[in-house]
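Quick one, probably user error.
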């Protein structure tokens, strides 16, 4: 697979330490067009309180570089952090986009959370739903949406200039790959999606959505296709589909649900917006009991 453009994109990555998430600001250069990928809304789980300090730090960088944000992009509906997409949309006026597979995710979680008739699972909470292969631009930077399902059914990779933003599909080489046990996840699909990415030129920069580093190294926002081929502990060159699927299924069976999955998905399927407040002026999240994880001993 070729890159959509030989133009070099400038990227600044911001690490949200509480959730191990990277938000990426990709842009042409000072004074040019930009996109924000996989934003984070601060969330204090004990107090059920949201905040915008992290998102505001990205807005400050946008203003420092005199950028015009043309897109706010989500690689998928995240289960491990709340999106600040709605907040950034309101402040910066840029359209919010995600893959068309979000409609299946919305349908599943509408049922789980009992959202009722007021929540319509057709993607209207976003300004643009990308299909596989859709081309778009960030200023003069050519960009393409590539479906990379497996972790979730709605997972996308964005190729912008010479940079690929892979969401949770790949992690740092010493960490491996994303889990596939969420609704719509599929280890065989993930293997094939990763093969699509690994067919990119080996010098392609890839930007990660998460890193969970050991004490021995700093968080890693960026790697390259060639490095993944040589060193990824789950998917380096030569790993068969059958071996990968068996490893992924066995590994996923040992994993607990993400700490913020219940608040995150209720917000993220709404385009990073909180539920509508009740008549008392308070917005509420729901906790479906005995539906996730394993029963106690």
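Nope, works fine. Designed sequence:
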């Amino acid at each position: 697979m070729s890159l959509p453009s030989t133009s070099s994109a400038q990227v600044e990555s911001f690490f949200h330490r509480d959730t191990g998430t990277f938000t990426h600001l990709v842009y042409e250069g000072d004074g040019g067009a930009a996109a924000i990928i996989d934003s984070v809304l601060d969330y204090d789980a004990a107090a059920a309180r949201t905040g915008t300090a992290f998102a505001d730090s990205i807005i400050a960088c946008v203003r420092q570089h005199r950028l015009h944000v043309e897109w706010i992009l989500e690689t998928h509906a995240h289960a491990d952090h709340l999106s600040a997409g709605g907040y950034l949309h309101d402040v910066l006026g840029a359209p919010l986009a995600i893959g068309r597979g979000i409609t299946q995710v919305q349908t599943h979680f509408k049922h789980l959370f009992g959202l009722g008739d007021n929540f319509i699972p057709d993607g209207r909470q976003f300004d643009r739903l990308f299909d596989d292969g859709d081309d778009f631009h960030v200023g003069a930077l050519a960009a393409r949406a590539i479906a990379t399902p497996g972790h979730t059914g709605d997972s996308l990779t964005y190729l912008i200039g010479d940079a690929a933003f892979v969401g949770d599909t790949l992690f740092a080489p010493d960490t491996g790959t994303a889990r596939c046990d969420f609704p719509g996840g599929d280890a065989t699909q993930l293997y094939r999606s990763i093969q699509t990415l690994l067919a990119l030129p080996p010098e392609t920069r890839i930007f990660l959505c998460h890193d969970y580093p050991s004490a021995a190294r700093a968080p890693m926002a960026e790697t390259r296709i060639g490095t993944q081929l040589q060193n990824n502990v789950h998917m380096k060159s030569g790993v068969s589909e059958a071996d990968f699927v068996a490893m992924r299924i066995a590994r996923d069976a040992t994993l607990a649900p993400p700490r913020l999955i219940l608040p995150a998905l209720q917000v993220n399927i709404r385009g990073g917006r909180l539920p509508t407040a009740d008549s008392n002026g308070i917005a509420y999240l729901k906790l479906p009991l005995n539906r996730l994880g394993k029963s106690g001993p």
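The chain is about 25% helix and 20% strand.
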